[in-house]
Amino acid sequence: MTTVEVSGSNGSTAEPASYGAADITVLEGLEPVRLRPGMYIGSTGTTGLHHLVWEVVDNAVDEAMAGYCTRIDVTILRDGACKVVDNGRGIPTGAHPQYPDRSAAELVLTTLHAGGKFGGSGYKVSGGLHGVGVSVVNALSARLVLEVDREGKHHIAEFKDGGQVARSLEVSGNAPRGRTGTTVTFWADPLIFEETEFRAQTIIERLQVMAFLNKALEINFKDERPGKEQAVSYKYSGGIVDYVKHMNSTKESLFRKVCWYSQEEEGSEVEVALQWNTGYHESLYSFANGISTVEGGMHEEGFKKALTNAVNKYARSRGALKEKDDNLLGEDMREGLTAIISVRLRDPQFEGQTKAKLGNPSIRSLVERATNDKLAEWLDENPREANQVCQKAVLASRARVAARQARELTRRKSALDGAGLPGKLVDCSSKDPRESEIFIVEGNSAGGSAKDARNPHTQAILPIRGKILNVEKARVDRILKNTEIQALVSAIGGGVAEEFELEKARYNKVIILADADVDGAHIRTLLLTFFFRQMKTLVEAGYVYVAQPPLYSTVTGKSKIYLLDDQAKDRFLKEHKDHRSEFQRLKGLGEMDFGELRDTTMDPAKRSLLQVTVEQAALADEVCSVLMGDDVERRRHFIQTNARDVRFLDI
């Protein structure tokens, strides 16, 4: 209810304003999208901007899943527009029976919940469930051009200023010989978005996943922007088998074979590919109608239950588990597992527009039946590989027991120590996690400077000694025995591994503060790997940050200037061509006095932090494996290629 303030003899009182029929606002057409864009695309930042691309590409992929599209081309044009071309059937161009004065294509572009996915035979399965995709793109674009090649004719329509018709759909000539399909070119509206510059790497990574999930679909990307020109192409004849091989290429596979199976029942289909590696982390990714279900759902539940059943049954039949032994747990046999679960079904029940979790009970039953039958067959037909899986799972179960004992010992120590906080932690006085932050600092000298530079009310300091354990190469039981990791776990709170509880974290900002050199970069990577593997929800919640201490300092006049990196130094020299100083390279945090460290790196009003985000868990998994794995050449190539690309770090 709306209220107005009315002054009275007693000071002020609030009375209801009039609330009648005239006060009801009706938003027509695409107005709701422009008024509340976050409801449809999540945000008006870079994530929402790229969501526009996904909506158009998903429509093209739906055509591929229906069997009518074999190629999709995505191009960032010279002026920054995005162009998506498919060779599907083309959006219908005839008049709509209910709206005879408007073409079906125009309705799709200008009306929410208009599309071919609500019934009829247009699509049996699709990712664009809600029918708001391309109309939302139109609503949030300054300009959009639609081209349709269908029935031998080339049709074109144009829209401006958030979906207003600038040119009604009309035939502009003949379609290229044999050509059918849809072309959508759009210019994101700068009045809506914080920035309208697309990031090529973000698009490329998503397109590669779509190519993996749609066997033999060719997806091409081209960037035509000056200075950013590049082109890549993806087409995988093995589909998700190639996806698993790609994921495990950064790891040491337990064996070369990839287990693949599929099953179809009553219009629903499941396809699974899996392979174990010698590592200790589970990499399980699920999709429904091509949409990444990052929060899992019924298909994952069915797979996990059947996997546990099938491996336990095999282990007992072959003597890997004795009669007196307890059954292996699911987490034991998923240690080192890389698996892709892809389901396609009519009427998928997603939780919300973000489609993060699948809720169809029927698909759980299908995945469970398929896995029970097909995985059991694979284990019987591949006894050497099956025995390796069982042996690894048995070792994992022993490590799980040891890890539980280590956690219990840690808890007992904490109880005996009182508060249970590490002795070297210099805590803040605030007990409110929302305003509290902890700096993880390498070295005692840097820790001393940071202690003096901090705001004691909201900033805590935890010095760590040297480089922590590489958790990519260790099981939880060994990880928990490491002194520095014990200090991290107890200081941050919330536990570790599968027991970690985000709401119990003592700080909403965990900031890695390391030197701006090679050793500092290694320490940052070790810590980020630890957080991603053992406190993943801390990263997903956006609680992990990287401080940016300057690499150089210089003097201009009477002022001392700090420069973040070589790029900042180059920019400074361009702006100050007469500058004569030899720059001072700051070798370590310990070289700064507390005032310098406060002013350059720790003061919230002056510092620059990088927030660590996980946009694609599978990609983050791959990066962790490359950076912390044993393949030195691949690690060197990755670092050289991505040296200036902060892929997971958003300012």
CATH domain fold name of the largest domain = Heat Shock Protein 90
How many domains, as an integer?
A: 4
Poorly predicted regions: 1-27, 117-121, 414-419, 643-651
* C-alpha termini separation: 38 Å
What is the percentage of strand-forming residues? 15-25%
Discrete helix count: 20
Tell me what the structure shows:
By secondary structure, the chain is an alpha+beta fold. It has four domains: 31-234, Histidine kinase-like ATPase, C-terminal domain (Heat Shock Protein 90, 2-Layer Sandwich), CATH 3.30.565.10; 244-400, 2-Layer Sandwich (Ribosomal Protein S5, domain 2); 421-549 and 588-650, Rossmann fold; 552-585, no CATH class. The chain contains 20 helices and 24 strands. Strands 7-6-5-8-4-3-9-10 form an eight-stranded mixed β-sheet. A six-stranded mixed β-sheet has the order 17-16-18-19-23-24. Strands 11-12-15-13-14 form a five-stranded mixed β-sheet, with helices on both faces. α15 packs across α19.
Q: Can you describe this structure in just a few lines?
A:
The chain contains 20 helices and 24 strands.
Note the topology.
Elements: E1 3-8, E2 11-16, H1 31-35, H2 38-41, H3 46-65, E3 71-76, E4 82-86, H4 104-110, H5 133-139, E5 141-150, E6 153-160, E7 164-174, E8 181-188, H6 200-213, E9 218-223, E10 230-234, H7 240-248, E11 259-265, E12 268-276, E13 283-288, E14 291-292, H8 298-317, H9 330-333, E15 337-344, H10 361-381, H11 383-416, E16 437-442, H12 444-453, E17 459-464, H13 476-479, H14 483-492, E18 509-513, H15 518-534, H16 536-540, E19 544-547, E20 552-556, E21 559-563, H17 566-575, E22 584-585, H18 594-602, E23 609-612, H19 617-628, H20 632-641, E24 649-650
Parallel strand pairs: 3-9, 13-15, 16-17, 16-18, 18-19
Antiparallel strand pairs: 1-2, 3-4, 4-8, 5-6, 5-8, 6-7, 9-10, 11-12, 12-15, 13-14, 19-23, 20-21, 20-22, 23-24
Helix pairs in contact: 3-5, 3-6, 8-10, 8-11, 12-18, 15-19
